[in-house]
Model the fold of this input.
Amino acid sequence: MAEAQEMAALDVGGFHGPVVCALVGITYRQLDYWARTGLLRPSLVEAKGSGTKRVYSYQDVLELKVIKQLLDSGISLQSARRAVDCLREELGADLASANLVLTSTRSVLARSNGEVVDLLAGGQGVFNIVPLSGVVDELAADIVRIERGEPVTRRQGEAAPHVGVRPRAAGE
Amino acid sequence: MAEAQEMAALDVGGFHGPVVCALVGITYRQLDYWARTGLLRPSLVEAKGSGTKRVYSYQDVLELKVIKQLLDSGISLQSARRAVDCLREELGADLASANLVLTSTRSVLARSNGEVVDLLAGGQGVFNIVPLSGVVDELAADIVRIERGEPVTRRQGEAAPHVGVRPRAAGE
DNA sequence: CTGCGTAGTTACGTGAGCGTGATATCGCGG
DNA sequence: CCGCGATATCACGCTCACGTAACTACGCAG
Done:
């Protein structure tokens, strides 16, 4: 019962450092480095000296997973910073049905696949396109697994199998 | 007349190090580093000690420009290496009408915009899409400028204005 | 109140990807 | 054949993005 209480506390919105590492699939040193350098601070509770605990929100973990995707696909942390800024600005959007698009100069959210096609037709520079649906679904599944005590052993640097990606026609 | 001969020699396929730097918009140290680390060796003449000259082919310069685009858009040199491998394998293709697509696991060439849309519908991982038409056209224009002695002063890290990008409808 | 585990902090090291000179050497003009 | 500029090479150092290990401090059980 006391354990169930702890689980509930997690559900309400709090994730400690090590748990976040398991969910996102990064090392603790990366999480720590990112927090110190200001890439992504825990939005619920910041660390106040040794022994204290950082507490991350669900939204934080989502952004971290996006960052991890970017790193796995060979994008620099610098660019990931711009991506995070974009996600922060467009929080109202439905992430599960949107694509994050980064170009050399700016980053935007494309709600429909049609918008992505339009951007491609514009044809300037390089496009980094991140489908967010996979990230959202995957996180939901992993949270359940973590709360059961199953250790979510995902290999480092390897793309996780995305759940719930539905192929679409171009003219949607 | 003797000068015209030198120019002709360049046209046939040879570019020295510093000229390549000006064309691509990178520093000599970058070109040197990339040659030493095996990212992109001059395919015509390698360096054999101090005082010798590296000679790059037109194809080399094209690949270098692609690498530069990747770097400007925040992609790591590691990923750029994979991109170069892909370009090497698909040399027969018409680069000016193709897009280079990099995912976290592999790299491919998409000949039509339709293929790009199909790939997006597949929806796995992150897509880095490089329209090659701009790179090809830009290089041709810059080569003319170089041979006139005009110094092609392009700002570092800023995307060059692409020529000849034509917007297309999705169902092409 | 006293261990003790857990989590954050510090110190130090590492490799990639260059920048900055200084140096060595080639090849060409005179 | 001899200087001289152009080009490659070397030595050194720097920043980013972490890894490893040791240390430290909180907070909870007993």
In short: The beta strands of chain A are 15-16, 55-56, 99-102, 107-110, 127-131. Residues 16-18, 28, 32, 36, 47-54 of chain A lie near DNA strand C (CB under 10 Å from a C1').
